[in-house]
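chain below, 417 aa
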Amino acid sequence: MGLNLGMSNSKSKTATDMPIKILLVDDNDSNLMSMEVALEKEGHIFFKATSGREALRILLKEEDFSLILLDVKMPIMDGYETAELIYQRDKLKDIPIIFITAHDYEEAAMFKGYQAGAVDFVRKPFNQQILRSKVAVFADLYKKNRLLKQQEEKLQIINNDLKLLNLDLEQRVLDRTIELENLNHQLRALNLSKDQFLSVLSHDLRNPFTALLIASGKLSDDNENLNPAQIKKLSEIVHRTSNRLLDQLNEVIDWAKKQSKKANFNPEKICLVNGVEESLELLKPNAAQKGVKLQNRIPKNIFVKADSLMLRSIVQNLVTNAIKYTPQGGYVIINAQTIENMAAVFIEDSGVGMTNEMKEKLFNENSASSVLGTNNEAGSGLGLLLVSDFVVQHGGTIDVESTVGRGTTFKFTIPAV
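prediction:
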């Protein structure tokens, strides 16, 4: 969009270049000729009429006159009547009229003339110098008015261009702001995906590695006191756990790739008892090491629509915490039931329990950095934040009930099929 800030155009005529058009009205041709001769040296353009009606006809076709010299005494329609009819048209009411009269300037006649719209009087026989002087005044005034009007029109064009320019700038700023907001949203999503990926790696793989280290440590440090059956059992744990860890790591990497493609999660139909059992597989050595009974009591007829990796992460984090805060010889039971179109999963333990203050901190992003059980064993709290986020992504909810010294039950819901 171009913006023309110039006040003139070399290709178009300015007000000072435009000719002065004068309408001469008199019923006497000699008077018309005298007026034209007196003014022709000024280079004006003349239109002549011998009656009021003829003058009105000319004004119907030509409107941009600078001045009208109008005889007062004319047959049929005198100058006063002609002036009144001229000024009835809005486009003509700004044309100045000088009355030409053969009579003296009587006060009553002058008042009538001014009332009809006259701006001045010239008496016959007129003095050519006086006539030229008066015409020159109104010609100069006409040019100045035309110039002022042209300047106003150009200023209006400039103002309109500026308004359009401002609107264009505002729209560009708005578009840029929206673009930046979208980029920020994408960056936040990428950061969230990164945080989730790191959290999954941290919490889903840490505990299986612990079981792997325990089994391999016994094989390494106590092999002389182990019989062949014990060695075989520990070797199987190491082998099975290593394979499961590799599979789980590959799944996490695949899941992270989907996250980068804006696929927040990939829900699929899962038999809940089987999905939970796969999640518990890597945690069984930990539970056995601590003497905690791990029981999967989920009915076989419950199916859910869930992201398999997210579901495993939810279960492993909650069960890991349950094992962690359950004393030797305790239990962790996983059960489920359908409630309308959701599956409610319960993870119950016989652990140390939590106070109300601890429960309030569980899913609080600002307070979860140090979650303690009543045995003062610290946890990072990040796993529970991840669990809450994954549950919410499935459209579910998570809650906890706990009594100090009697245990804790976590409940979360996900869509049932």
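DSSP finds eleven helices and 14 strands in the chain. The longest helix spans residues 128-221.
thats it, cya
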